Structure formats: structure tokens, C-alpha cells
Amino acid sequence: MRDAATAATVPAATPAPGSNGTAPTQAETETAEATFMRAYGAQAAPSVRRRLGIETDSIAGGMIMYARNDPSHFFNKALGFPGPVTADLVEQIINRFRTAEIDKATLQFAPALLPADWDYIADDHGLVRGASMVKFAGPLDAINPQGRTTLRIAPVAPEDATAWSAVVFGTLGLGETAEMLAGTVHQENFRPFAAWDGDTIVGGGNLFIHGDIAATSAGGTLESHRNRGVQSALIAARAEAGRAAGCRWLTGEAFQPLPGGHNPSMSNMLRAGLTRLYERPDWVWHNPESR
Fold first, then answer.
1. Could you list the pLDDT tens digit for every one of the 291 residues in the chain?
2. Domain for residue 6, yes or no?
3. Are residues 149 and 270 in the same domain?
4. How many domains does the chain divide into?
């Protein structure tokens, strides 16, 4: 396992994602996500890691993590793999989760890396297709969110980390793990932002700097303050922070709604100038020994 100090940094020998002028590849986008997800766990305070039972590690160029005591199971996942997906890789991942006595986990692979016989591999290992996440990207010099808000948007100071993380992760159904998000306020590669109504935080979002990629994550607004332009304003603030950090691309993600449904997060990203890169399904594993 890499130490916490290296989890959120980009090795000097790593080519900058998207540095050839084209949009980030699927593998580059997945690597950026895996790096900030690992930082959530690896750089959490020791007391938080103990309470939630957090472990992170590398496997086949990707990342595996889990939080044994997280009732949402959200952080039990494997992602960020740069090469082709094989039956042997899937077996390695599942064995790691099984050894750790994890009840449920999610495997996330860039669709371009899945083999022709993926359906057979998934079925053979008990993987069930879950929700799909749509990945977006756009050149930062073209990002121009259209929404406006009367609320104050500003970076999150350390003294506001707890309140900010409770709001953001609370709106995402991840309140039990809010301390993991709070810990990113102190990490060099993150740029957390909040929306204030007076002295009260009512929304927020995070940004992770990874080479040429500024990766947005963890956006949420209290129900009482939705439809007031908060998320569009947060996209604008994070885009500006990405430009200030020297990034060239802004990336984001949103759940693919069911047929006939609507996800406002997708609309906000499209209006801001991001374009759809690809759709990535979750592959969910349930430990048969836990049933």
C-alpha cells in the first residue's frame, strides 16, 4: 500500500492527462477519479479510518478500497484500471473483497477496456449490472456556466469543514462517512467550495487537481435551496480554480436517469460547456458468504 503522502499526487514521470490537446481518454478520466477516491480514504484522519474500517491498496495499476463499517457500502469499490479487463483481474479483485469479509462491493471499469466476453465473465463471477454513471469533460477555456445565484460561493475554510461535509455528503446519502470528505479540506490537491445562505452552508462541491484534469466531485445542495443556481455557480467556481491551477480540462459525472427521467446535474454540466464522454455501468458483487 502506498503511504498517504503519495496518494493524492501525480508522479513526475506520469504524462499529463489530455496534454495532447484532445479530451482525456477513458483510462485517464478513470485514473483521476481513482486517485481522488483513494485520497478520501488514505488521507482521512487515523480516527476516521479506524471508525469506518477504511483500507486502500493498489491492484493491477488500479485501486481497491473499502470501509467495513460504512452502511452505504459506497466506498467498497475497485476502479481506475488502465489496461484491459480480464477474468483473472476480476478474480483478484473479488478475492480481496472476500478476504476482507466485505458484504457488497462495486467494480467500475471504463467500457472501452471490457473484453468481448465480458457478459460471460460478469455472470461467472456473480456481478450484476447496477446504476450507470455518465462521464463528462470540457476544455476549461470554454467552460461558461449559465446559471446565477444570489447565494455566496466561496472556498471552504478548515473551520467550516465539518458543516460543509455534513451538507454535501448528507444530500448524497453518505452522511455516515462525512468525515472523509471533511478531511479533503486540508489536502493540497483538493479545492472545496460551499454555498452560503447568510452564515449557513446550504450546498457545496469539491474539485481535485490531477495533472491537466480538474475533476469535480461530491456536489450537493439542501432541498430547501435547490433550483436557485447553486450547482451552476459551484461549477463556475471550480472551473476558475482549475484554470488557476494550470489545468486544461474540467471533468464531471452524473447518474444516468432511468428512461423518461431527468437528472439536473447532467443538464447543468451540458449547459456549462461540458460534453458527454461515455457511460460507465457499475458492476455489483454480493458476497455469497454474507447472505
1. 222 222 333 233 333 444 456 899 999 999 999 999 999 999 899 999 999 999 999 999 999 999 999 999 999 999 999 989 999 999 999 999 999 999 999 999 999 999 999 999 999 999 999 999 999 999 999 998 877 899 999 999 999 999 999 999 999 999 999 999 999 999 999 999 999 999 999 999 999 999 999 999 999 999 999 999 999 999 999 999 999 999 999 999 999 887 888 888 999 999 999 999 999 999 999 999 886
2. no
3. yes
4. 2
User: Is residue 252 one of the residues assigned to a domain?
Assistant: yes
Query: Does one domain contain both 171 and 198?
Result: yes
Do 121 and 163 fall within a single domain?
A: no
78 and 163 share a domain?
no
Q: Give the chain as a DSSP string.
A: ---HHHHTS--TTSPPTTTTSSPPPHHHHHHHHHHHHHHHHHTS-HHHHHHHTEEEEEETTEEEEEETT-TT-TT-EEE---S---HHHHHHHHHHHHHTT-SEEEEE--GGG--TTHHHHHHHTTEEEEEEEEEEEEEGGG-------SSEEEEPPGGGHHHHHHHHHHHTT-GGGHHHHHHGGG-TTB--EEEEETTEEEEEEEEEEETTEEEEEEEEE-GGGTTSSHHHHHHHHHHHHHHHTT--EEEEEEEPPPTT---HHHHHHHHHT-EEEEEEEEEEEE-GGG-
**Residues of the domain holding 148:** 139-278
